[in-house]
Structure formats: C-alpha cells, structure tokens
Specification:
This protein is mainly α and 565 residues long. The protein folds into two domains: 4-69 and 535-564, no CATH class; 87-274 and 307-525, Growth Hormone, Chain: A (Up-down Bundle), CATH 1.20.1250.20. The protein has 23 helices and two strands. Helix 3 (88-110) packs parallel to helix 9, helix 6 (132-155) runs antiparallel to helix 20 and helix 7 (157-177) runs antiparallel to helix 10 (247-269).
C-alpha cells in the first residue's frame, strides 16, 4: 500500500468534494516535445491528491477518455519497452556512456586553450586572436542546440548522436592539418557546432531513462561529466602542447583519437531512448502487422506540427519568448551563465597567476585545474544525500515534488563560489604567497560550480516540465555565449585591473546573485503561479494537501509532509 492509499477517507470531507464515482479514471499527458507520459489510474479516487490531479487534467485540457483505444501508448506502467523500466544497471551504463561522450566534447572545448601561445607564434597572430580557438568552439556550442534539439525531437536521440559525433570527429582532422588560421578557426567552429549534440541531448537521455526520484542522481552524473572534461582539458593539453614545436598538432590528433573511440562506442551501444520516437515505431509496426485492424492507430508525435513554421516556433521562437517573459528563467540563466563564464575565464586567468607571476610552465599550470576537478567531484558526492529525500517526496506528490526542493545544493554553492573567487584573487596577486594557497581556492570554486549547476538545471526542468526543452535551450544558448565572451576579455581585464580587483569584481557579481536560490525557495511558488509556461502540478497537489491538513500552509518546505501520511 502506498502513502496515498493510506490517506483517511475523512480528509475527503475536509477537502470539500464528494467522493467520485467508482469509474476508473485515466489521466495521460503526452508531449511531443519531451515525450513525458503521465498515467494515473484509480478505481476508487478517494484521496485528496487524486482529486487534485483530476483537476489538473481538466484545467489543462489533457484528459483523454479511456475509450480512445487508437492512441498508442505503453502497455501499462511496467511496460519493459519503456526506457524508464529498463534494467537499472543498463540505465546506469547508458548514463555513464552519455557522460563519457560529454567528457569528450567538453575536453575538446578546453584542451586547445593551452595552445594559444604556440598558435600565436606559428601563425603570427595576437594572443587575443589565438584565444578564438576556444571562443569559436563555444560559439558553436551556443548555436548547436537549436539544430540538434529539434532534430532529436523529430528523429530521436540515437541518429542525432551518431551523425553529430561523426561531424565533430572529422572536423578535428581539419584542425590537426590546418596550415592557416581560416582553416583552423572555421573547422574549430564547426566542431563546436556538431559537439553541441551531446550537451543538448545528454540531459534528454537522462530524462528519458530516469523518473523523478532517480533523476537527481542522473543529472548529477551528467553535470559532473561536463565539468570533468572541461577541467581535464587544460591538464592534458598543457603537456601535449609542451611536447614539441608542433605539439599543438599532436594535441588535435590525440583529441581525434579519443573522439573516434567515443563515436564507435556511441554507434555500438547507445540505443534509442526518446519515448515519442519509440511509440511511433510501435504504432508503425502495429499498422504494418494488421493494416486493416490497426489503420487508425496513431501517436501524438505523429500529429505534431513538423512544418518549417512549427519547427521554428518550437526550436527558435519559443525559447526566447520564454526567456523574455519568465523572471525565473531570466535570473537562473543569469546566475548559471556567470558560473559558466567564470569556469572558462579561468582558462585565461590561471596562466597569468601561475605562469606569469610564479614561472610555471604550461604543463604545471594545467595541473592547477585538478583543484577544480576535485571540487566538482566533492560537489557530486555532496549532492547524493541531498537527493535522497525525493524517495519519500515523490510518492506523496505523485511524481511532482515542488521544484524548490532542488535548491538545497545551490544554497550551499552560492557562498562557496564567492569565498573561492575572493580567495583566488587576493592570494593569487602576490607571488610572495606560496603557489598552493591560491591553488586550494579552486576546490571550493569547483564545488560551487557543480552544486549550483546541478541544482539550477534541476529547478528549470521541474518548473517547466513539458516546456523544459525550450527553457533549457534558451539557458544553454546564453550560457555558451557567456563562455564565448569570457576568454576574450579576461586577460585584458586582469592585466589592466590586476588579479585581485578582477576577482573582486567577479566576486561581487557572484555575491549579488548568490541569494537567488533563497529568493526562489521563499517566493518560487508565488512566482510560478503567475507563469504562463509553468504547468505547476505541485501547486494543485499542495492545495489539496494543505486542505487535508497534511501540510502546513505557513511552511515553504515540503520535506516534512511525507511523515504525516
């Protein structure tokens, strides 16, 4: 018996609604954008939460009568064809594989940062121009999700991974063989464009495989892989570039080899996980098996608008409309963009602190990034116990716990980021201070990056649900554009303002934005209630729980509610 089944019948009277008839009710939402299918079946809907869910379905015009037998769906909640019901070990393997692909592309984004001096000498260009080797790749990161997010929505995850990884890998050859800056920079941008697919679709695979309870761990693994690759890049790149006069070419050949191996693994082992595409294949198979009997079978995915206008509306227009109208998304994107920009700004700041001020060579300077890696790993470990509460929250909230419950990690990460940046700036400025003192500051910075990033992305996903792809697309675009810009102005800022005052400026921005998680913890539900794009099923459920006396109306937190049921 679940927690909901144990709710006493007298709570129904407190809620003020008559007991519904004993007619089974099926509530399904099927979205071609996210592939989320919600199924709620009750033979005797007496719980207050079930009543709330019925109201949500009615309000959102998502109630589909059980008699609509032509709509192809999963064969019950335990259908083994549903990726969420696959073997947990297999899902862990696929999550790890997606993480490896993400490590690959993020490592390729940051590793060439160590080659800027070599490129400047080889092609006779300024250091600012040579820093385009990183920025142009990130510009491709910004534009790519618009392409790959839409194509994966149309054709599925697997084919997009295979095609995009092929292009990404082949264009690295152009970088290794480049004899002029035009070839180098164009192929670098195109590599970033194709490499954006694992970043935009990796989170989609995690969402396809894991439900609300386990999603936090999956997102944590995925987000950690983003930072692991970014951190390992300068370490590996530094030593490879240092290996000889043409070390930067050797670096690109090594990146090509790693990418080719990842492409082989992706092609061999990554299956299709996108539910709408899997259900469409099922419908086509059933229609083919019995063309007469099953001719009217359909899926919501097949009925979606795939015209150029419809695709442009979803992939290009909608993300920016949501961004313009949603204060939640604006503030969260501002904060996450600052974090992402700081991470890529460090690629240019570390050579100044440890190379120029302390005489480290390129390889040893790259080793400082291991502090960021240690910090992001520790942040991942801290995130694990923070996610355990969802095991208890998910049943009570019918799989829709309030998004504010995702903010604990960001609340911890905000102050850590501020502390780490001020520590780095005011100890890194003076060469008389031992090298390891500013190096230790990279650990809290890494922890803050992981904790905040995972928490904020989880909040966006849980807030916008069926519109999460659009919200994440807008967020990813502005994050990547910020990362594109930071490496271009960081060296000039540091040389003109000094290390300590440059970090003070960034620290003040971080301090200004650090209260955002606290703001949404307290006022998030009220802000979301006025949102046009947030479905807010938790608000309806909360109203039912408060009316039933299962949740205090004064408490902004919901973690204690499960103990009352």
């Amino acid at each position: 018996m679940s927690n909901l089944d144990s709710i006493p019948e007298d709570y129904q009277e407190k809620w003020g609604h008559p007991t519904p008839k004993r007619t089974p009710v099926v509530i399904r939402r099927y979205s071609s954008e996210t592939g989320r299918t919600l199924s709620r079946t009750t033979s005797n809907a007496r719980s207050v939460v079930s009543v709330a869910l019925s109201r949500i379905a009615t309000t959102m015009d998502e109630h589909i009568d059980e008699e609509d037998s032509n709509l192809v769906n999963w064969d019950g909640p335990n259908d083994p064809a549903n990726p969420k019901n696959w073997n947990p070990r297999y899902k862990q393997f696929l999550t790890a594989l997606t993480g490896l692909l993400t490590i690959n592309v993020t490592l390729c984004s940051s590793a060439p940062a160590a080659s800027v001096f070599s490129l400047s000498r080889r092609f006779g260009i300024s250091l600012v121009a040579s820093q385009l080797i990183t920025s142009l790749f990130l510009l491709g990161f910004a534009i790519g999700p618009i392409i790959w997010g839409t194509t994966s929505e149309m054709y599925g995850r697997r084919i997009v991974f295979i095609i995009s990884f092929s292009g990404f890998t082949l264009f690295i050859i152009g970088q290794a063989l480049a004899d002029n800056t035009a070839t180098l920079f164009i192929t670098r941008f195109l590599s970033g464009l194709f490499a954006a697919a694992p970043l935009s679709n990796g989170g989609g695979v995690v969402s396809d495989l894991w439900g609300p309870v386990e999603r936090g761990k999956g997102v944590g693994i995925y987000a950690t892989s983003v930072f692991v690759g970014s951190v390992l890049g300068p370490v590996i790149g530094g030593y490879l570039v240092q290996s000889g006069h043409q070390g930067w070419r050797w670096l690109f050949w090594c990146l090509f080899g790693f990418s080719f191996v990842c492409w082989v693994l992706c092609t061999a082992f990554l299956p299709e996980t996108f539910a709408p595409v899997l259900l469409t294949r099922k419908a086509r198979r059933l229609r083919k098996e019995d063309p007469v009997k099953n001719k009217d079978l359909y899926t919501a995915h097949e009925g979606a608008d795939w015209s150029f206008r419809g695709i442009a509306q979803r992939a290009i227009i909608r993300p920016f409309v949501i961004m313009a109208l949603e204060p939640i998304l604006i503030l969260l994107t501002l904060y996450s963009s600052l974090i992402y920009g700081i991470l890529f700004g460090l690629f240019e700041l570390f050579p100044i602190i440890w190379g120029e001020r302390r005489g480290f060579d390129i390889g040893n300077t790259g080793l400082i990034f291991l502090g960021i890696g240690i910090g992001t790993t520790l942040g991942g470990f801290i995130n694990v116990p923070l996610q355990r509460k969802f095991v208890h929250l998910a049943p009570l909230w019918q799989g829709f716990p309030p998004p504010e419950e995702r903010l604990d990690a960001a609340i911890i990460g905000g102050p850590l980021l501020v502390i780490g940046i001020f520590w780095l700036g005011w100890t890194g400025e003076y060469s008389s201070i031992p090298w390891y003192v500013p190096a230790l500051s990279t650990i809290p910075i890494g922890m803050a990056i992981n904790l905040s990033f995972v928490s904020l992305l989880g909040y966006i996903i849980d807030t916008y649900l069926i519109y999460a792809a659009s919200a994440l697309g807008a967020n990813a675009f502005f994050r990547a554009m910020t990362a594109f810009a930071f490496p271009l102005f960081t060296p000039q800022m540091v040389h003109h303002m000094g290390i300590q005052w440059s970090c003070t400026l960034l620290g003040c921005f971080s301090l200004l934005l650090a209260p955002i998680p606290w703001l949404f913890l307290k006022y998030g539900p009220q802000i979301r209630a006025r949102s046009k794009w947030s479905p807010n099923p938790d608000l309806k459920i909360r109203e039912a729980l408060e009316g039933a006396g299962l949740l205090s109306m004064q408490s902004p937190r919901t973690s204690t509610a499960s103990s009352k049921v």
